[in-house]
Specification:
Strand content: 15-25%
Number of helices: 3
Order of helices and strands: EEEEEEHHH
Number of strands: 6
Shape: globular
Largest sheet: 4 strands, antiparallel
Oligomer: single chain
Number of domains: 1
Length: 136
């Protein structure tokens, strides 16, 4: 006999990231405010994972008419997609904004201060012909 892949576990929890008290209903796996989760399950509801790391929201998917939030464990890198409830729309929008902002910050941080693009940095700088005159 094989073990069930989903076990309904009803429990309330305080989010370790933002401190929000969340009332569980057996399907709750992330904070309703910041959407962070905790890596406690091998299979949903079993509480068999020993990692215990915080799982940050890293992506949003749409499938079967439902939104899914992808979490990634900050400790071990494990990823899992979880359905969102209709009432979590505001939190989802906030998370999407944070994801977009962090992607923008990474892009901006990778830009050189002198304004050159990556392609410009790969090409030798032109110094009005001085480099070619020195070589001859």
């Amino acid at each position: 006999m094989t073990a069930r892949r989903f076990q309904r576990t009803v429990e309330d929890f305080v989010c370790e990231r933002c401190g929000t008290l969340n009332t569980g209903d057996g399907y709750t796996n992330h904070c309703r405010e910041c959407l962070y989760s905790k890596h406690v399950d091998v299979h949903p509801g079993d509480r068999a994972a020993s990692c215990g790391g915080l799982m940050r929201p890293v992506d949003v998917l749409r499938g079967g008419g439902r939104w899914k939030l992808v979490h990634e464990c900050e400790r071990c890198g494990f990823r899992r997609a979880n359905r969102l409830r209709d009432e979590e729309t505001d939190a989802l929008i906030g998370t999407m904004r944070r994801l977009a902002d962090s992607a923008w910050e990474i892009a901006v941080d990778d830009r050189p201060l002198d304004g050159r693009t990556l392609d410009d940095r790969r090409r030798p700088a032109l110094d009005n012909g001085r480099a070619s005159k020195q070589a001859s």
